[in-house]
Design goal:
The chain has 167 residues and is mostly helical. It has helices spanning 8-20, 40-52, 69-80, 85-92, 100-116; strands spanning 26-32, 57-62. A two-stranded parallel sheet has the order 1-2. Helix 2 crosses helix 5. The radius of gyration is 19 Å and the shape is globular. It starts with 7 loop residues before the first helix and ends in a 51-residue tail after the last helix.
């Protein structure tokens, strides 16, 4: 739906790679599309894939439709899923955000399912037995450089002592 963005499979691959290197990963589950990706089955499938990839936290966000994106999305919806137009009128009216009650329902469902998969819990069993990097150990992750030619060297994150992240 978003041309040029990495696929969910590719994004989960990054989560898996980072998790396997001892980094805790959080996933932003967004956007959740009313009538398209918000069923209990779809949420369960997504949360299961996120947990299997090794994420430790998950935050859901229901689609928001700001001016510009709203007009494009509504035209797409009318063309691809016209049966959903009344639902979107009910949920969004003339605003950018779905109704508070709908957002609460979806967020609660995602959080309950995530808890069953051991996500969003400090010190969860998912963390048991996972090797954590030592304080003076630095992870090296190769990142692509925008505009770099193929075959050019790719820099790593700078080395140095790891600093704890404030929570």
């Amino acid at each position: 739906m978003e041309p040029g963005t990495p696929s969910p499979r590719a994004r989960l691959g990054v989560v898996r790679a980072l998790s396997e290197r001892g980094m805790e990963c959080s996933v932003l589950m967004a956007p959740i599309l009313p009538g398209l990706t918000d069923s209990a089955e779809q949420i369960e499938e997504t949360v299961a894939a996120v947990a299997e990839a090794g994420a430790t936290r998950l935050s859901p966000i229901v689609l928001h439709l700001r001016p510009g994106a709203r007009e494009w999305y509504r035209a797409w919806l009318a063309r691809e899923h016209p049966r959903l137009l009344p639902l979107y009128r009910e949920l969004y009216g003339r605003g950018s955000y779905a109704s508070d009650s709908y957002q609460r329902i979806v967020t609660t469902a995602v959080r309950e399912i995530a808890a069953r998969y051991g996500l969003n819990r400090p010190g969860s069993p998912r963390d048991a037995g996972r090797e954590k990097p030592t304080e003076d150990e630095q992870l090296s992750i190769e990142l692509p450089v925008a505009g770099a030619e193929r075959g050019a060297s790719t820099p790593s994150l700078p080395s140095g002592p790891r600093r704890p992240v404030a929570s």
